[in-house]
Amino acid sequence: MLYPFTPSTERHLTIDMDTTDLARYLNTPMAIGGKTIHGRMVLAPMAGIGHVAFRELVAEQGGCALLFTGMCSAKAVPHENPAQSMVFRWRPRELPFTVCQIFGSEPGEMALAARRIENEGFFGVDLNFGCSVAAICKKGCGAALLKAPDHAARIVAAVRKAVQIPVFVKFRTGWSDDPPYAADMARRFESAGADALTFHPRVAPDRRNRPPKLDIITRVNQAVTIPVFGNGNLFTIKDGIRMLSQTGCQGLSLGRMAVARPWIFARWTGTAQVDETIYHSTARRLLERLDHHYPSPFNLKLFKKFAPYFCANFKFSLFLLKQLNQAKTMDEMAQAIDQLFIPCPETLSVPNQNLFV
Questions:
Q1: Nearest 5°: phi and psi at 41?
Q2: Could you give the maximum distance between any two Cα atoms of the chain, in Å?
Q3: Residue 303 and residue 168 in one domain
Q4: 315-345 pLDDT, tens digit each
């Protein structure tokens, strides 16, 4: 196998990988919109989870080529104060490899927010056309924009005109199971100026009730010339190999598994080995960084958003989660972590997906 692939040949290869091949491929640099990232495995943008403390934890564990923030309101971003905002907040050292995701419905607002993001020094801006939460869609944002392809393309074009940094778009199949429609949307986004796509192959009303359809990633990938990151149900190394092999996509975007196991990037890229002590140390480290970055009681609230994913790693996940949720202060949470995860409880090979809400 030859590395690195050129974009023209890579897109149409069926990649026959083993674990070593996967690590080598995921460590291959990639060009995005005139910039280069050191690998092909990125953190998916996640509302309420992808905050600065969690991103710091992922960066410390290694292997992740790009970090993404959680959703930021395009209407609010131009006026946000990072010292006070609970969402639009970052560490200066992460800016060169962090993409800020925004949601909105108006081209002008999205362009103005993107300009602020560029001025702050972020690697790129990501446009959320994938969130299917009712509160977001009712505002005409997120996945609702997939019902208005011309308008969605105008948003991409407005952002592209406003900034020089890479423009990403994250989107789903649409509101019906229509693979050609997803491919058409990908072409529209590329024509409007997008530099990379993150594609989740599920219809918008489907909140992970059915498995993602990898063949739709293949269609999206073949419809464009820009990089495509595949997203959805990447739980094991075999899942990563299968997605790359079957779809030809250029990279992997991990969400829920990255929350459950923030060291997953280092494991899959072969840049680190871990043992069972990683579970306790990870929970304690996140608690510490949340206490550093956020005031009480908001820091505890954020840890409890992380807790279901983390507890899903263990055989008695519901019991462990119940114990953690009883903590009323950060100190009580620290004590609970020490009591519950030293020694490490019995783990599962694949986390309990019932807790992956």
A1: -125, 120
A2: 55
A3: no
A4: 999 999 999 999 999 999 999 999 999 999 9
Name 102's Cβ contacts closer than 8 Å, sequence gap at least 6.
71, 72, 73, 74, 77, 110, 113, 114, 117, 125, 126, 127, 128
d(CA 155, CA 157): 5
**Is residue 2 situated within a structural domain?**
no
Give the number of other CB atoms < 10 A from CB of residue 129. 25
Q: Domain span at residue 347? A: 277-355
Q: Are residues 124 and 214 in the same domain?
A: yes
Out of 236, 268, 300, pick the residue that ends a domain: 268
pLDDT at 7: 39
The domain tally of the chain equals 2
Domain boundary among the residues 248, 268, 288 is at 268
pTM exceeding 0.85: yes
| Catalytic member of 72, 100, 131, 141 | 131
Q: Judge whether 249 counts as a catalytic residue.
A: no
| Sequence-distant (≥ 6) Cβ neighbours of residue 81 within 8 angstroms | none
Residue 14: CB partners within 8 Å, gap ≥ 6?
245, 246, 248
Both 245 and 311 in one domain: the answer is no
Closest C-alpha among 78, 93, 33, 92 to residue 227:
33
